[in-house]
Amino acid sequence: MNLIIEGHRFHYEMQRLVGQFFPLQKIIVFQQGALPPDAQEAYVYTALKQTKDAVQLQASYFCCGKTHTLKERMDAVLPDFLKQAELTLGRLVYRLLAPLTGITPPWGILTGIRPVKLLRQLYGACPTPGQAQRAFAEEYLVSPQKLALAAQTRQKEDRVLARSRPESFSLYVSIPFCPSRCRYCSFISQNITMAYRVLPDYLQLLCQEIGQAGAVAAALGLRLETVYFGGGTPTALEAEQLSRIMAAIEQAFDLSTVAEYTVEAGRPDTITPKKLEAIRRGGAGRVSVNPQTFNPQVLAAIGRGHTVQQFYQGFAMAREAGFDCINIDLIAGLPGDDLRSFQESIHQALALNPENITLHTLSVKRAADLGATAGAELGGRYHQATRMVDYGQCRMMRQGYHPYYLYRQQNTAGNLENTGFSPPGHEGLYNVYIMDEAHSIFAVGAGAVTKLRHPQTGVIKRLYNPKYPFEYISRFEQRAGRGDEICRFYK
To answer: For the chain, how far is it from start to end, CA to CA, in angstroms?
Structure first.
């Protein structure tokens, strides 16, 4: 889909918004009113044109020889003119494209990852909670259902955020290896069986980086709140390798303040009693064991690489190993799944009484195996994905699970969200901290992104590690000044 921009700088926002109406289509931006190479191609046109006393905003959609247009005038002397112009133009695009495409994004014109954080900011800026919620719904066109979900999530998040202090930080450990790649996955991950040449060096340098991060944290007097192993699939490693990394963390950091220590054991086919024992001995009390679906045919269609029975075995092993906090991931909108099958997955997950259930909506990136063929299906499954998510959320809340964190991704079926649910007192702390950007996240390993948050100013700074394990190894020495850079940021 072509997008023409004229007279404004809201390129990124308009590109993201238009993309919600044309799933997985590449949105090509043309500036300054330049027509696409073939003027007969469909395109969206957005413009801001200023006259002496006012500004005219316009959104048009050309398709099949017809042009549809909406316009609105606004005062050019508003104190927050640029923000209001962006919102107004976004609403024009939404109201133009929703009836023409049959897609009505429930989050309105919001294109960001963190809608709950925006709602929290509105609570702080508006005189009353009611006014904040009205602004969220009317300015951003958020549906009543998503407003209610965001408001509930904010309440749970606030209790977790109250635990974070100015000196708090969390640690993320990247294990970018998997036994195989799922068809919907676009993460930076390497097949563990093909990584035997780089794995020894990777583990050695990862432990070295952990030591460096610990020295920086100690020098700054920081307080470690949570530790999170992600990937990839951390349990693709052997038990001895997991123990080695966790021992490096114990040596480098003061773990006496850690309230949550998580290791993702997401692929049930990688779980063994020996690995779980190593994880428990290393200090972790929370694991994630992810079925994604309880439908065997759907598991095969997405290349998940494990059976439903293996999931049950992995979950039971985690309980037997003493884990009293287990997360389960489910995905709505998977290829081959339908509403009845998804409902059964919800029922089976709830029957296990896990402490966390994260309900994802399928998000397909072009880099994923499904990316080349899923565009039409993603758009066609819009309403079914919505029914799946609505059912899952309602069913979990009826059973005492409440939303405690929420985020959105591009190219999700139904333009929906990913939401974590838990009974009271079992919220996943790391998830809340990273979604709200409450404090710094020190991240180690290939593909890891350290996100620093200044405790006084709230300024955010990101520091990127090389994406792939071989790059991480070959360019490791280039990070020599990373510790000094972090110290300068804080001081």
So the answer is: 47
Mean pLDDT of the chain: 91
Which residue bears the tokens 């389960």? Answer: 328
Amino acid at 288: S
Distant-in-sequence, close-in-space partners of 155: CB < 8 Å, separation ≥ 6: none
Mapped onto helix, strand or coil, the DSSP state of residue 212 is helix
Alpha-carbon gap, residue 404 to 198, rounded angstroms: 38
At 301, which amino acid appears? A
With vertex at residue 431, the alpha carbon angle to CA 170 and CA 230, rounded to the nearest 5 degrees, is 70
- Virtual CA dihedral for 68, 74, 76, 77, nearest 10 degrees? -160
Alpha helices in 321-468 (DSSP H): 339-351, 375-380, 382-398, 429-436
- C-beta separation of 388 from 332 below 8 A: yes
Q: Where are the alpha helices (DSSP H) in 235-307?
A: 239-252, 273-281, 296-301
Tell me how long the chain is. 491
Q: Which two tokens stand for residue 339?
A: 């509403």
- By DSSP bridging, strand 286-288 and strand 260-264 are parallel
Tokens of 27: 């949105």
Is the confidence at residue 373, as pLDDT, over 70? no
Residue 60 pairs in a beta bridge with 45, 69
User: Helices (H), strands (E): how many in the chain?
Assistant: 16, 18
Nearest residue to 226 (alpha-carbon basis) of 285, 289, 154, 157: 285
pLDDT by residue (tens digit) across 226-240? Answer: 999 998 899 999 999
Q: For residue 270, what are its two tokens? A: 């990688």
CA distance 342 to 330: 9
Q: How confident is the model at residue 302 (pLDDT cuts 50, 70, 90)?
A: confident
According to the model, what pLDDT value does residue 80 have?
Answer: 83
Which of left, alpha, beta for 333 (phi over 0: left; psi -120 to 50: alpha)? left
Whole-number Cα distances in Å, 443 to 165, 173, 209, 244, 273: 19, 6, 9, 18, 28
Question: How do residues 29-77 score in pLDDT, each as one tens digit?
Answer: 887 656 655 656 889 999 999 877 789 999 999 988 899 999 999 887 7
Quick one: average pLDDT of 432-449?
96
Q: What count of other Cβ atoms lies within 10 Å of the Cβ of residue 144?
A: 10
Stretch 292-301: mean pLDDT, rounded? 93
pLDDT tens digit string along 28-38?
888 765 665 56
Q: Quick check: 406 and 113 in contact, CB under 8 A? A: no
Would the pTM count as exceeding 0.85? Answer: yes
* Distant-in-sequence, close-in-space partners of 441: CB < 8 Å, separation ≥ 6: 169, 170, 171, 172, 433, 434, 450, 451
Residue 22 phi, psi dihedral angles, 5° rounding? -135, 75
Give, in order, the Cα–Cα distances in Å from 139 to each of 9, 44, 132: 20, 22, 10
